[in-house]
Amino acid sequence: MGIAVRNLSKRFGSFQAVDNVSFEVPEGQLVALLGPSGSGKSTILRIIAGLEPADSGEVELTGEDATNLPVQRRGVGFVFQHYALFRHMTVRQNVAFGLEVKKVPKPEIQRRVDELLDLIQLAGYAGRYPSQLSGGQRQRVALARALAPRPKVLLLDEPFGALDSRVRDELRTWLRKLHDEVHVTSLFVTHDQQEAFEVSDQIVVLNKGKIEQMGPPQWLYEHPASPFVTEFLGAVNVLPLDSVLSMDEVREEAPLPLDLPSQDGPVMIYVRPHDLDVLRESDGRPGWFANLRRLTPLGGLVRLELRLHGGTDILVQLTRERSQELGLVESEDVFVVPRNWKVFHDPGESLVPDYVI
Amino acid sequence: MSSVGGKRLRSSIFRPQSLLIGVVVLWFAALILVPTLALANKALEGGFRPFWNAILSSDARRAFALTIGITALATVVNTLFGLAFAMVLVRQRFWGRALADGIVDLPFAVSPIIAGLMLVIVYGPNGWLGSSLASLGWRVVYSWPGMVLATLFVTLPFVVREVVPVLREFGIDQEEVARTLGAGRWRTFWQVTLPSIRWGLAYGVTLTVARSLGEFGALLVVSGNILGRTQTATLYIHDTIEGFEPEGAYAASVVLAGISFVLLIGMEQLRKYVEVRESGQSE
Fold first, then answer.
1. What domain range is B129 assigned to?
2. Range of the structural domain that residue A134 is part of
3. CA angle in degrees (0–180, nearest 5) for B190-B192-B197
């Protein structure tokens, strides 16, 4: 295992930042720690790096117990959100730092730094100072610096958080390509669901210091294990059971595809906006009559805000083609058909502020 | 053409900004420039020879040697202590930190004469610590150790005060990265932290040196002003001013003022030079 974490817990005063967390990152994979702020993800990363001691639990790096090792001896590469480059040193000196600590001979250092500068596509910049670089360039140098001493494990703390969105997109793609070339076991922290999807092999979803679920991105999206994961990984409509039971057009021949949980208690139905189809008239499938309140074109997609006749508001996402095909107009009455949904016990409150893809 | 230029010049003299600049320059001149020039003039009144003799008199030379020695020692100690204290103040959390922060400024609030008096009470021959030290054969007050102590007291805040904000602004990210790259405490401090705070540190050191050179009040009380033994340059000036050879006072004053002036100017130049070289590293 590249990284293994067992029963990690950490408390700051009365605040339980990390609550008995265990997970593994397979060797050579790029895994994301995804969660809202305060979920403990940065704390976990820092504990793995050795920058923060855990209250209890173990950390294993490439099969060896690292729990009691000081930072210096763990062999981790760390990249901060705000680059943390050594401002008074040139790019070359920054990248060479880890190698000089290890007393690598000078010609070897020179070679390795050149190699890395090529890798990050900043070959001519060796003599520049960080203040002379753009944000994206600085982050690439920070990455090269972390990779120079060939760490066992690469840890990134919201590496693109300080960059503007265009640079962020470029660097995400670039990081993924880099990882495909270099294959270091990597763990990165983000609060951006889209980033986690684009870059990682697997995602660990965290909430309030606990792991909610772990798995490959698309699989998580399609098989969320809890309301939190469902809501966090993309926009979703949350409907009370009554809306579903009182759907129009429910008939014996076309029963509801509803697997109610065995326990008692209030139950909510989670439907993704793109799992709803819109028709001008009922076609016999279970569905709802609804009124189109608002239609917002979003480039290749169209967002529809609909109010069901029962009073609930829902969001539907259609492709541009489908929307044009229908030729809908605001305040029209339509029929909405769900293709897929998930059933969970009512969590009581909305777990997550409105995150929309 | 020239009449147009003249008109422009005339109207500009009466604009508010020029008036303000004129007032400021006049004020600066009256307060600092003129007295300085007057001093230099007085010192060189009798010609260069008497000035040179006054400076090279054995009393003057001993006084300057003592001043420089005390300044050097006090600066080194306060730099080391100030750095350590700044690191603790900024990086560690401990009970009483706010109090410690306030205490650092105490020497600013206390008149140097009072500081001298406090030291005599504690370290004097009948003082709390002084009596025990005396039994060990160590004389603190009325001897150079006491004077170093007095200088340490009055210059305590400078290095700390200049380093703390720079250290705080610098943050710990770079230090943490250095540690992940395998650097131990010492290497991290030497190669990462220190270079980042060097300007704050250098400025604090300069202020310490300038202040030490000019210390008078506390030394007056603590030294006993024994001619040739515990007489610094400032005390020498004080003595000779009232005596029969005021040339000594003027000459020493000019030299002392000159040293401080050169120090401060050199410091500013250095700072500018480095800033240019590293093309605005502050960010």
1. 48-277
2. 3-231
3. 90
Set of chain A residues whose Cβ sits within 8 Å of the Cβ of B191? 86, 97
- Is the Cβ pair B183, A101 closer than 8 Å? yes
Tell me the C-alpha distance between B189 and B83, whole Å. Answer: 11
For residue A156, pLDDT beyond 90: yes
Q: Give the ranges where chain A is alpha helix by DSSP (H).
A: 41-49, 91-101, 106-119, 135-147, 165-182, 193-199, 217-222, 227-232, 241-245, 320-326
- How confident is the model at residue A347, as a pLDDT? 64
Residue type, A205: V
Residue B156 lies in a domain: yes
A352 in a domain, yes or no?
no
| Mean pLDDT along residues B259-280 | 72
Tokens at A50, concatenated: 């050795």
Say which of A71, A88, A146 has its CB closest to residue B179: A71
pLDDT at A253: 44
Kindly determine whether residue A80 and residue B281, on different chains, have CB atoms separated by under 8 Å.
Answer: no
The alpha carbon of residue A97 and the mean position of all alpha carbons in its chain are separated, in whole angstroms, by 31
Considering only CA atoms, give the Rg of chain B: 24
- Distance of residue B100 Cα from the nearest chain A Cα, in angstroms: 24
Last residue of a domain, one of A206, A231, A256: A231
* First-to-last C-alpha distance (Å) of chain B: 48
Express each pLDDT in B203-229 by its tens digit: 888 889 988 988 888 888 888 766 656
Largest CA distance in chain A: 80
Model confidence, pTM? 0.79
Within 8 A of A147 by CB-CB distance, chain B residues are none
Residue A99 pLDDT level (bands cut at 50, 70, 90) = very high
Backbone torsions φ then ψ of B280, nearest 5 degrees = 60, 65
HEC profile of B97-154: HHHHHHHHCHHHHCCHHHHHHHHHHHHCCCCHHHHHHHHCCCCCCCCHHHHHHHHHHH
Q: Inform me whether the C-beta atom of residue A82 falls under 8 Å from chain B C-beta atoms.
A: yes
